[in-house]
Amino acid sequence: DAGVIQSPRHEVTEMGQEVTLRCKPISGHNSLFWYRQTMMRGLELLIYFNNNVPIDDSGMPEDRFSAKMPNASFSTLKIQPSEPRDSAVYFCASSLRGSLGNGYTFGSGTRLTVV
Amino acid sequence: AQTVTQSQPEMSVQEAETVTLSCTYDTSESDYYLFWYKQPPSRQMILVIRQEAYKQQNATENRFSVNFQKAAKSFSLKISDSQLGDAAMYFCAYHNTDKLIFGTGTRLQVFP
Question: Which residues on neighbouring strands pair with residue B92, listed in sequence order?
Fold first, then answer.
């Protein structure tokens, strides 16, 4: 298994532009999570999906952020318009719900820089 | 709400020595999981060790072991025979139901 695949690995964009981050979870996993990591706030859970359905988006910072999971093998996190304070590393993780003991498998993250 | 606290922002250890990283958490649940994740400079999140709350026996994975004190809500990580490759950020995490909640991390330096 190739693990959780995120793209791009790095993204540099100008303030006001739309940014789309992509994630392919591990095949067979039915839960998907988006985290944001910054020096100031650490690892924050933004949103998670169970069986492609958004369950809790209370961590999404504001309306500029949106996430979708159109099928079991793909999810996107979109920021529109982007702002410099959105600069962070964004992680996607997946797991098999009901197998908590296995923890989550994380992707390599997308480092987003908004200038 | 569940919270996870790592009170040591940085720790250092000499190669081949032992170091313990601290973690406390707050929850009213009785059944949950606890994890330690390692994040090296490559930024990959790597699962180091896990503990089920209903198991009294402390988990061990090679040089990594935990001291799980359920009543005290404490979950420390001991790294024995430290190696240069152990240098990384270490995150304690709590999981029940659907969410994995992380502490703020401890940066571990390993000196030769």
Answer: B36
